[in-house]
Amino acid sequence: MSNEPSATGTSPRTPRPGAQKSSGAVTKKGAAKEKPSTALPPVGEEESKNPEEYQCSGILETDFAELCIRSGYTDFPKVVTRPRPNQNFVLSASLSEKPIQDDQRLSASCSQNSLESKYVFFRPSIQVELEQEDSKAVKEIYIRGWKVEDRILGIFSKCLPSLSQLQAINLWKVGLTDKTLATFIAILPLCSSTLRKVSLEGNPLPEQSYYKLMGLDSTIAHLSLRNNSIDDHGAQLLGQALSTLHTSNRTLVSLNLGFNHIGDKGAGYIADGLRLNRSLLWLSLAHNRIQDKGALKLAEVLRPFELTHREVVERRRLLLEKGSQERSRSPSSSRHGDSKTDREKPQTAISNVVSGDKPEKMQTMKTPKGLGKKKEKSGEVLKKEERPGPGQSPTQGTPKKEDATKASKGKVTIPEQKMSKGKGTKMGSKEKRSILLESELVVEATEMVNPLLEPVEHRDGKVFLPGNRVLLHLNLLRNRITEVGLEGFLTAVQYQVQVSKPKTSSKGPLGLLWLSLAKNCFDPQCPTYTMIQELMLPRDPVKSKVKEEEATAT
């Protein structure tokens, strides 16, 4: 009995609870002291791997992966090349030529990787189309089926500007919101100037802020907004982005609004945008809800239409500004005429001086000083004054030749007035060549005249402006247009056929070359539709080439 309590008493004493507490405290303190030593290296690594300090190399695969790792992403989308159907056909053809034993081996290996390939297909990825000449230069980007968040857009804002040959960005069902769309639009000006095509499909937005992609500072030439549930309100915003009374988009060439919910009102808003827009060449409103009212609005723009009161007032204001500018330039032209009459006289020395003359404003401001200096000299100036008769133009030219050259070296008015033939023509040709090298579309935009200044027709006290003959392609497939809407398009096509002929007027506007009205609410054999097809058939460049090839083959 005495041994039991001793055994029981010794058992709790052996661990020595006080010492155990102290040892536990020591271990806790040691662990607490060891924590900062283990936590210091990751802090240093984060500082060394700051995404803002990373300099992109222009290779999207490495740049995107490195920026995702530096931003803290563990599982991020991979950059893969976009599969092409042509390559698959070539591979299948080459595999068919192999013997049967090789086919069996390939089938066995493919069966093992079939599940992995299926999962890889559904895994988020960034599909990329590369240049043929440079295998690392990205030409187009395709993102489909996964949500693009602000963090991904932040990474894109750092790696996309380094892609010097990027031409297109395609986003299909990526869960965009109005906020993320605003950040995406802010990235576009940072990208290369070669980026001209943007496609946002399957991304319905509650505020329908797609019109922000068509701002005045936008450089997008091809915009696709299919399957975004755009209704009449969104079409109103897009029509205002195309053109208003004071502004107009001059860079957008093609606009795809197919598979949306645009009705008659929305088609009317788009037609209002086409009234004063002279840059859009390709428009698709297929698979919408447009009926006869919207069709008549669109057809009205394609032929001479009546100007509203506000448009007439704006036209008068523009004419007054143009007249005032011409009047301000008229004194310089009269002076040029006087100098030309002086050149026709036999005095070669005076003609050389006048032909090398500098801007008249500089001369008129400094003629008193020049005359005072020259009058102190011998009678050379008096002889030159007596020869031409009027006396002012040669005296302004002879003493001011050196002074004008010194004073007008930094001026911009010399190429504008084009006094010397050689310099003026050379500067103009260089400027035109530089503009042509940028893009043909930019040339059209720079040389574009305000449509309100086009020649108009006055009928019954009303002003009629020529219709929009810049639009070449109009797609209204699968809408709700009846024969009433067809009548409007028939009159528009008849007018454009009479005014513009593609073979004769190659430099001017051609008008509609392709019009699609199929799959609407009318009989395909109705006479109105057949007449439209007969008028448009010789204007279609594709069908005319096919006919020519068939004729040459026969």
From TrEMBL:
Q: Where is the composition biased (Low complexity)?
A: 389-398
Task: Cite a single Pfam family from the UniProt record.
Answer: LRR_6
- Bias-annotated ranges (Basic and acidic residues): 322-346, 377-388
Instruction: Spell out the residue ranges making up region: Disordered.
Output: 1-53, 322-431
On the tree of life, the source organism's domain of life is Eukaryota
Cite the record's Polar residues compositional bias ranges: 1-13
InterPro entries from the UniProt entry: Leu-rich_rpt (IPR001611), LRR-containing_protein_71 (IPR053040), LRR_dom_sf (IPR032675)
PANTHER family this protein is in? LEUCINE-RICH REPEAT-CONTAINING PROTEIN 71
Instruction: Report the protein name in the record.
Output: Leucine-rich repeat-containing protein 71
Organism per entry: Neotoma lepida (Desert woodrat)
